[in-house]
Amino acid sequence: MMWTILLTLCLSLASQPDFPLPEKVAYLEIPVYPHSTTMARMESGQVALQMAYARYHIQNPEALSPISAGDIFQVDLVFTKYPKDTTAWRTNYTFLLQSRLRELYQLKPALFARKDLTWRYILQTEPETEPEAMDYFHGLVLHWKKQPDARLDSVLKFDPAMTPIADIILGNVPKLKDSSAFWILDRHPEWQDKLVIMDWTASMYQNRASVLNWHRRQVQGEGIQHVVLFNDGNRTPHLAKRKGKTGGIYHIEPDTLEAVIEMMAQVKARGLGGDPAENDIEAILKATRSLDDFGEVILLPDRNSSVRDISLVGYLKHPVRIILFRGKKTRQVGLGSTGEWVENTWVHPHYLTLACLTQGSIHLHNRDIDHLHEMKAGEKLKIGQWEYEKQANQTFKALRFK
Fold it and tell me: CA 87 to CA 58: how far, in whole Å?
């Protein structure tokens, strides 16, 4: 009873915190708190956020990023009842407990608005000495169960082909076929407030979906700010398309991944496909002119397609970071196919030109190319089996060298 009163005082008296405290809290004393760090792709589980003894910083915040606040049904704040003699306390529990809750609030503020959530403060009573107490688990354990999403179910029934895309985004696949996005985005933590613009036409849907898988795993504020999808004019006939006015461009903020998947299905359904040229520049222009709270502009194109509106590149005002996924093709033997996949290193020179003229960069899974605007006319650059020569007008020309 005494500890219950003291905990209540610790969390309600002295300086008021700058975030909402849980209104109803259950109190429990147990010898040792059993917990699991398992948070793999399951329908339910626990996520343990580790904190050091008498400290409040979360040591593994990335563990929480795949879990939606709406799927969490219980939060346990776990620490040790040491020393047992409260007159011997040296820790400022008011500051410590509030700080531990504030750390969680910064990761998942939506939890603190939930009225149906169970909050428990749990003290482990077994430790008899400070070294023993330091070896026990301290931190937060969040219990979660995946809630069914009626909107997502509706999307997948409407278009079953979206299922593998949704599985990639939501982390329901053990391994990605192409993890280029992870290599590249992890390599560039300096890219903040990302505006990601994706060519959402028929090829490589699943590769581009992997970028949202990466976003799902990030700590709040370190992922993607905006997603823009373009399908090159919805169902506009090829001969009716006009540079800068092709259309088929859609924007969403990726706060809810199910909503992103729904929009992806809509953009996919409205697209026609089959046209080798794409309206990349129009999509970038529309995004950068209509949005103002972004930092890095990141383009995910089809590396093999030409840019229909490359002549509009001079209107772009921001460096463009171009992420290229690995190209694959079937090995041909005579008129037949071996069924064996080999890497296709071809990159349409329009993307080198786009990166050069915006002082942007090209990014492959194992290589960053950020000096294109510094190259002199006549200089050459090798990418896989291809060589590219810079022209006097700052464009690039492809020359095969193998």
Answer: 28
β-pairing, 249-252 vs 224-230, is antiparallel
Residue 222, amino acid: E
233: number of Cβ within 10 Å: 24
Peptide bond into 83 cis (omega under 30): yes
Contact 156, 264 (CB under 8 A): no
Q: What percent of the chain has pLDDT over 70?
A: 85
C-alpha 251/C-alpha 291 separation (Å) is 10
Task: Tell me how far apart the alpha carbons of residues 93 and 96 are, in angstroms, rounded to a whole number.
Answer: 5
Q: Which backbone phi and psi does 155 adopt, to 5 degrees? A: -60, -45
CB-based contact 66:223 (threshold 8 Å): no
Q: What is the pLDDT of residues 80-138, one digit of tens each?
A: 888 877 666 666 777 888 899 999 999 999 899 888 899 999 989 999 898 999 999 99
Q: Are 229 and 301 in contact (CB under 8 A)?
A: no
Instruction: Find, among 250, 271, 265, the residue nearest to 201 by Cα.
Output: 271
Whole-model pTM over 0.70: no
Phi then psi for residue 219, to 5 deg, are -65, 145
